[in-house]
Amino acid sequence: MTNRIEHPIRIGIVGYGNLGKGVETGLTLHPDMELIGVFTRRNPEDVPSKSPVYRMTDLEQMKDRIDVLVLCGGSATDIPEQAPELQKDFTTVNAYDNHAEIPAHFDIINEVALQNNNVGVIATGWDPGLFSLNRLVAEAVLPKGDTYTFWGSGVSQGHSDAIRRIEGVKLGTQYTIPNETLIEDIKEGKEVAYTKTSSHKRVCYVVAETDADQAAIVESIKTMKDYFVGYETEVHFIDEDEYEKNHTGMPHGGRVIRRGYTDEETMAVYEFGLELGSNPQFTAAVSIAYARAAHRLYQEGNYGAKTVFDIAPAYLSPKTGAELRKELL
Amino acid sequence: MTNRIEHPIRIGIVGYGNLGKGVETGLTLHPDMELIGVFTRRNPEDVPSKSPVYRMTDLEQMKDRIDVLVLCGGSATDIPEQAPELQKDFTTVNAYDNHAEIPAHFDIINEVALQNNNVGVIATGWDPGLFSLNRLVAEAVLPKGDTYTFWGSGVSQGHSDAIRRIEGVKLGTQYTIPNETLIEDIKEGKEVAYTKTSSHKRVCYVVAETDADQAAIVESIKTMKDYFVGYETEVHFIDEDEYEKNHTGMPHGGRVIRRGYTDEETMAVYEFGLELGSNPQFTAAVSIAYARAAHRLYQEGNYGAKTVFDIAPAYLSPKTGAELRKELL
Ligand SMILES: NC(=O)c1ccc[n+]([C@@H]2O[C@H](COP(=O)([O-])OP(=O)(O)OC[C@H]3O[C@@H](n4cnc5c(N)ncnc54)[C@H](OP(=O)(O)O)[C@@H]3O)[C@@H](O)[C@H]2O)c1
Ligand SMILES: NC(=O)c1ccc[n+]([C@@H]2O[C@H](COP(=O)([O-])OP(=O)(O)OC[C@H]3O[C@@H](n4cnc5c(N)ncnc54)[C@H](OP(=O)(O)O)[C@@H]3O)[C@@H](O)[C@H]2O)c1
User: Fold this and answer.
1) Domains in chain A: boundaries
2) Inter-residue contact B296 to B315 (CB < 8 Å)
3) Equal CATH topology for A9-128+280-328 and A154-250
4) For A154-250, which CATH superfamily applies?
5) Concatenated DSSP letters for A56-73?
6) ipTM score of the complex?
């Protein structure tokens, strides 16, 4: 592998939501990469970007000017539709996060990528992504043990959307908060009952409509199946000013902890954690590093679908092997 | 890459100190690996292992019965002498931790490995090793930022040896303790003055000889250049019972923290941490996972020296790619 890039890696961004914006911003931090343009399903004039914005239909004729497309559509419907189609002509990276569907998505992208001699790196980001990588390393090194994933403190987009759909709710944000007592108990070697609902609590900040029934809103939130039932849930009513000031960001993060044993009784705690001021910007940051890797795999003719599991760490860095050994080993 | 191993990977352990014992113990946790024997420079009868123990000179005739040698000698002199020699006939893994000499060691092993069509994975363990891996990933994902490494709380073998050489010291253990205030400041985005000496303090537990001059011992410790000068250093005198009860273990650990920015002002904190009941056992655990990777690289004909930077995470796990995607992504 030659680590040194001769000319900047030319990137196209597909979809300009939070993640797309994050990739645009993030690329400015990587001198070995260059943004060719943003591609959108909307009218380019309606997309508030300072970069060149093109229609999706322009992509085909720009094929030779782009090394890697970073797919920034939503995981619910955009990625399943767009990724297999774009994979025909491009090396791609996505942050697809529908965990249950990842194996099938891998197979689809793998087939198209192998047929067309390109590379598709799927499910980058932090979870899936860096969290997955750490779950793997932790388990491989400490086969005897248990892995725990905690999310937060951070904003859950899905849960925030859900509370905003309740009658009488004008604005709302939901924070997922990990159970710190449980985390301490794990690290201290205590026996723990880790369940989906015991491991996190849910804290909601709601701006109610003027005449709304606040008790009814609380009731609607706490009884919402799949989202809140079973969780310790707090609801705080605040005014619009406070909401705009304190609850419009997208912070997130979390921890992967493996408590393992290196012999019958000797404990080893492996922990990976992130505290992110901006979830989409960090997800973008990871996707950008994997875009660099995708381009190198492509240059080596190592085609097909890949995940964070399949990519040697050195491919993520612009530094040469010798530089990495000298500076970081 | 086929992830599934047909027959157990056959391991030889070279050198039976703390690390060698750790590999012997650790291998019992890996059903896809098998210990062929321990190889020592001492008289095999003097080596307190329940596994088959052989002389180093027996290695050559056992070549075909061993897939990977895990080299467990000391970094100061054993590895530089033994590794290039053994690399001629074997795929090897080591935990060489002389950071300044790693680039040269890589080049030596690389040359021998390429000449003899085998694989040499160097500098595994936790630092170098998993810490290095995280320094690389953190920097590649967050190019704008700073990386900080903290060690401890844990026993430093080198510093403990140094205090034990002081006149009047019967027994002694030195703990390296990270500066938690500095760590908090880093995570909170404050400006910090991180230097080698401000980032850790050193706490010594000493059993003095009966008539020893304790003040002189303290003085000798605190004025020891390279080891203690400049550090906040505490010396506690204890009796032999307490020493045997509380200070003969080899716990260690530490953290790699990168404080990065995903745009002009938005912070992202990336943290990797280990809390190890046994430093050598965990170092062994990492070496074992990389021994699995080394064997697979060998099977693929991907010869030469490798570091943790060059090895895709999937190679560390006994699971297939499909299993990993389904269970851990
Ligand atoms: N792996 C991880 O760790 C991780 C972490 C966070 C998020 N993610 C994934 O990243 C995906 C994208 O997240 P996101 O926050 O960027 O989603 P988003 O803001 O909803 O954007 C998704 C798409 O919607 C369209 N869009 C955006 N703003 C629009 C507007 N004002 N009007 C009409 N259409 C608009 C854009 O496509 P067009 O430009 O084509 O219209 C955009 O690509 C999520 O679905 C999630 O699955 C993964
Ligand atoms: N990368 C990392 O994160 C990391 C972490 C910790 C340690 N390490 C490295 O691991 C290396 C090995 O550490 P270690 O704690 O295993 O060192 P150790 O206990 O001093 O053993 C080193 C060698 O000394 C010989 N030996 C051991 N006990 C002996 C005894 N009672 N009498 C005579 N010889 C004896 C053994 O070789 P024979 O059997 O051939 O005599 C053994 O291989 C260290 O030098 C360090 O560099 C790396």
Assistant:
1) 9-128+280-328, 154-250
2) yes
3) no
4) Dihydrodipicolinate Reductase; domain 2 (3.30.360.10)
5) GGGTGGGGGG-SEEEE-S
6) 0.97
User: Of B18, B40, B79, which is best to mutate to test ligand 2, by the most ligand atoms within 8 angstroms of its C-beta?
Assistant: B18
Tell me which fold the domain A9-128+280-328 belongs to.
Rossmann fold (3.40.50)
SS3 A117: coil
Q: What digits encode the pLDDT tens for the residues B248-277?
A: 999 999 999 999 999 999 999 999 999 999
Q: Measured between alpha carbons, how far is B303 from A40 in angstroms, rounded to an integer?
A: 45
Q: What is the mean pLDDT of each run of 10 residues along chain A (329 residues)?
A: 70 98 98 98 97 97 97 97 98 97 98 98 98 98 98 95 96 97 96 93 97 97 95 97 97 98 97 98 98 98 98 98 98
d(CA A212, ligand 2 centre) in Å: 71
pLDDT at residue B5 in the model: 52
Ligand closest to the CA atom of residue B42: 2
Indicate if the pLDDT at residue B196 is higher than 90: no
Which residues of B fall in the annotated binding site for NADP(+)? 16-19, 40-42, 72-75, 124-128
Q: Is A280 in the pocket of ligand 1 (CB under 6 A)?
A: yes
**How far is A89 from B63, CA to CA, in rounded Å?**
49
Q: Are the C-beta atoms of B144 and B261 separated by less than 8 Å?
A: yes
Q: Does B309 contact A324 at a Cβ distance shorter than 8 Å?
A: yes
Q: Residue B260: in which H helix or E strand, if any?
A: strand B252-261
Phi, psi of A202 (to 5 degrees): -120, 125
- Its sign, for the CA torsion B90, B96, B99, B101, is negative
* A262-307: pLDDT as tens digits: 999 999 999 999 999 999 999 999 999 999 999 999 999 999 999 9
Q: Alpha-carbon distance A11 to B194, whole Å?
A: 36
Three-state DSSP state, A329 = coil
Cα separations (Å) of B91 from A196, A314, B57, B63, B133? 44, 21, 17, 10, 22
Give the Cα-Cα-Cα angle A251, A255, A257 (nearest 5 degrees).
175
CB A104 within 8 A of CB A83: no
